[in-house]
Amino acid sequence: MPSADPAGLAAALGHRFADPALLATALVHRSAPNERPGTCPESNERMEFLGDAVLDLVIAQALFERFPGATEGELTRYKASLVSEQALAEVARELKVGDYLVLGRGEEETRGRDKPSILSDALEAVFGAVYLDGGPEAAERVILGRFGRGLDTVRETSAPRGDYKTALQEWTQARGRGLPGYRLVTTEGPDHARRYTVAVSLDGAELATGNGTSKREAERLAAQAALKALVERDAERDAARDAARDADPPATP
């Protein structure tokens, strides 16, 4: 599958690159340079290193300012939820980062464009490219533009000790929604590198999937994604209801 023009990703990010080569490098997976050294001399690993640090700083500052009463432990938990591999892969999918990746043949053949680890690493590299191209303010604007909704709901979607299955069950039961169910969807890879995909459903409707190196990890990641989706859906519904109520003129006596 040929990679899409990175200009489309730049437009989705809302950043005009003065040096488009930075974005192009951020999208080169480490499997590509060995096969195409002429067109892909460098992978995105160095840029991922930088982007990871930039992302951590921007999210840490946003949390520090947004939750002045939160303890260090709570802030750490919130940040871990926002920048987990699963959360970053979800943002990457929203941006269609996978369409723009340059992969080696092996990763291309094993659906590397949708692997959470590759997507999350590439997203961090993209943030690193924005930082190098536009500086701290540009990076902060782009990052907060993609994580604003998560920051609004992170207090509800982060689970103590990372126990998202319990957190999801408590959330659904508190609202009379019953118990979530988990189903193994796929098992892929050789024995030494097996990966599992699990779907979580509620009331017969699939909420989310998770992919991990064990069924337990996949279930946890599925529960995390489901909890985030449910909380954000409720927040959007409440915001729409409040907007509609504010738009209605008060009844005249």
Shape-level CATH architecture of the largest domain: Orthogonal Bundle
Structural category = mainly alpha
- Quick one: biggest sheet? 3 strands, antiparallel
The fourth-level CATH homologous superfamily of the largest domain is Ribonuclease III domain
User: Regarding CATH, which class of the largest domain?
Assistant: Mainly Alpha
Compute the separation of the termini in Å. 66 Å
Task: Give the H and E element order.
Answer: HHHHHHHHHEEEH
Query: What best-fitting shape do the alpha-carbon axes yield?
Result: globular
CATH topology title of the largest domain:
Ribonuclease iii, N-terminal Endonuclease Domain, Chain A
Supply the number of structural domains: 2
Reading side by side through the largest sheet, how are the strands ordered? 1-2-3
Report what the structure shows.
The chain is built from ten helices and three strands; from the N terminus they run H-H-H-H-H-H-H-H-H-E-E-E-H. With 253 residues, it is mainly alpha-helical. The chain folds into two domains: 7-158, Ribonuclease III domain (Ribonuclease iii, N-terminal Endonuclease Domain, Chain A, Orthogonal Bundle), CATH 1.10.1520; 164-247, Double Stranded RNA Binding Domain. The protein has a three-stranded antiparallel sheet with strand order 1-2-3. It is globular and about 60 Å long.
